[in-house]
Design a protein that fits this description.
- Strand 8 and strand 9 form a beta hairpin.
- This protein has ten helices and 15 strands.
- It is 32% helix and 25% strand.
- By secondary structure, the chain is of the alpha/beta class.
- Helix 6 runs antiparallel to helix 7.
- The radius of gyration is 18 Å and the shape is globular.
- The strands form three sheets. A seven-stranded mixed sheet has the order 1-2-3-4-5-6-7.
- It has a domain of 183 residues: 4-Layer Sandwich (Metallo-beta-lactamase, Chain A).
- The structure holds zinc ion (ZN).
- The site of zinc ion has 5 residues, from loops.
Length: 265
């Protein structure tokens, strides 16, 4: 098995794995850019990711946020590459040092997230060839950051893109912050988008614009319905009548209600 490995260029390697459970299938993409590893992937894929990290040893690691599918192998990197720094949001260093308490469906789907040693994000992470700005934007989670390489026009967005038309969001997500994050992205001069679950997109700017427009339109519809006196639960049922399976499995950790409830600042 192993991850499917492709090269964006000589120094930029992309690892692609798949995770499935009860008919829910998700892709996971790891980016190893000139020795900088962006997210470690989930422990569930450890047998596939370890050979990748041994073949392309990281010199530095940035985790975009602390969800278990992004830092599941961080503790393993601590033990195999003890001198390699792992950067996370400054507010979450204590959290990274304790094991994440996960609901059963996440432990099964992604695996555990064991304690690991992290250091606070610097403003810029350098490799031999590239220089990445780390920009904290929140949105999907309080600690979420994006990485921007201005010379190359690359943007690594963790879980802030996923799709142009999301119908569910994670319970920690603050939709209006996600919208602000999309605005922030569009203020940067980028072309290539690298998403943790949908991979590389050369038309990144177009996709981020589409997602921004979708959320803005949704915001207007929610606001108009609120003005007419509808409650959030009613608005949710009107705008998202079909509930995908993930809502049930996750017992509401993922839902359309999570998009609606935080769409207004
Ligand atoms: Zn996440």
């Amino acid at each position: 098995m192993g991850l499917r490995v492709s090269r964006f260029n000589d120094r930029f390697i992309i690892g692609h794995g798949k995770v499935g459970y009860l008919g829910v299938n998700l892709n996971v993409f790891l980016y190893s850019v000139d020795g900088l590893l962006i997210d470690t992937g989930p422990w569930r894929l450890a047998n596939e990711i370890k050979p990748f990290l041994l073949a392309f040893p990281p010199k530095k690691v940035v985790v975009t946020h602390l969800h278990e599918d992004h830092c599941g192998l961080a503790f393993w990197i601590n033990s195999v590459y003890p001198k390699v720094p792992i950067y996370a949001h400054g507010d979450r260093i204590d959290v990274s040092a304790t094991e994440a308490k996960l609901p059963l469906y996440r432990r099964i789907f992604w695996g555990r997230r064991r304690p690991f040693r992290a250091e606070p994000y610097p403003n810029i992470v350098e490799t031999d060839l590239y220089s990445f700005e780390i920009i904290h934007v929140g949105g999907h989670s309080h600690d979420h950051a994006i990485l921007y390489e201005p010379k190359e026009g690359w943007l690594f967005v963790g879980d802030l893109f996923l799709t142009t038309r999301p119908i569910v969001a994670f319970y920690e997500e603050i939709t209006y912050q996600t919208l602000q994050a999309l605005h922030k992205m569009l203020s940067l001069d980028f072309s290539d988008l690298f998403c943790s679950h949908s991979g590389h997109h050369s038309n990144g700017r177009e996709l981020i614009t589409k997602k921004k427009e979708y959320l803005e339109e949704l915001y207007e519809r929610v606001r108009a319905l609120k003005e007419r006196g509808y409650a959030l639960e009613e608005i949710d049922r009107m705008l998202f009548p079909k509930k995908p399976f993930i809502v049930k499995i996750s017992q509401g950790e993922w839902s359309s209600a999570n998009i609606i409830k935080s769409i207004e600042p």
